[in-house]
Design goal:
- The structure is a single chain.
- The chain has one domain.
- Helix content is 70%, strand content 3%.
- The protein has 8 helices and 2 strands, in the order H-H-H-H-E-E-H-H-H-H.
- It is elongated, with a radius of gyration of 24 Å.
- The chain starts with 5 loop residues before the first helix and ends in a 6-residue tail after the last helix.
């Protein structure tokens, strides 16, 4: 290879591997919480790079593009995109659960009760935050974070660093998978829709039969109580849905990243 000596080649390889871990650390919600300081996330990415660097052998990576600055920038951008794609796509079931929780809170009458989410520094629904925190606990309980790091190491074999291919080649079937995540969110929120719609129908009959009763005063606590009862019964089933989709979406992320491998 022209222009780079062996130490410089090794540094470039370590940099490319490090950029993948940086993309993962700063895109997945299990690592991007604001409660975790940014320097700690970066140091954690450095530690993972050091632990994984033995997987790559310098002689197996084509470094012919490393003589030009523009090619180096393109390769670095590709590595960051791969890490971000893996972290974001693998965490889509968690985002679906949060959206389902926000819809549930709106049905229960908590649409005006917004709280500050310490992990994202944004206002969110109480029920949505409850869903997300429970899912995060189970995600670590099921070693989802280890699966994500293991999947990133697997990408080193599927798509070795040091190759130029900024855009994936082939059909990623993104429409099908987005449809699946939408259906997953609907399955989480349907029990609340059905039960609370029936409660609205019952309150409507009650308002017609007993017009002296202030149905708005009675209806709100009834819907809240019914919503929490359904939530207590449905949360285990929702967590089972999330558990069943964790590995599926990690596999989908790997299949998406596989299309970044250049066809020679």
């Amino acid at each position: 290879m022209r222009g780079l000596e062996l130490p410089a080649q090794l540094v470039m390889i370590y940099l490319l591997l490090h950029l993948r871990f940086v993309g993962l650390m700063f895109s997945s919600p299990i690592f991007t919480t604001s409660l975790t300081p940014t320097p700690f996330r970066y140091i954690f990415a450095v530690m993972l790079t050091v632990c994984s660097v033995g997987i790559i052998k310098p002689e197996e990576i084509p470094l012919i593009y490393f003589d030009e600055v523009i090619f180096i920038a393109a390769i670095c951008l590709r590595e960051i995109i791969i890490g971000i794609a893996l972290g974001f796509i693998s965490s889509l079931p968690l985002f679906a659960l949060r959206i389902a929780g926000e819809q549930t809170g709106s049905i229960m009458g908590f649409s005006m009760a917004q709280i500050m989410d310490p992990s994202t520094q944004q206002e969110t629904s109480i029920i949505g935050q409850l869903h997300f925190l429970i899912a995060m606990w189970f995600y670590f309980r099921w070693n989802g974070h280890l699966l994500m790091v293991q999947a990133l190491i697997e990408t080193l074999k599927l798509v070795p660093p040091g190759q130029i291919s900024l855009f994936p080649a082939g059909d990623l079937s993104l429409g099908t998978w987005l449809q699946n995540i939408f259906v997953l969110g609907i399955r989480m929120v349907v029990p609340f829709y059905c039960a609370l719609v029936l409660s609205d129908i019952g309150l409507g009959f009650l308002a017609r039969t007993v017009p002296q009763m202030n149905i708005f005063v009675v209806g709100l606590p009834v819907k809240v109580m019914l919503g929490f009862m359904i939530l207590a019964a449905v949360i285990p089933l929702i967590m089972d849905l999330v558990h069943a989709n964790i590995e599926r979406w990690i596999e989908f992320a790997l299949s998406v990243i596989r299309f970044w491998k250049p066809t020679l």
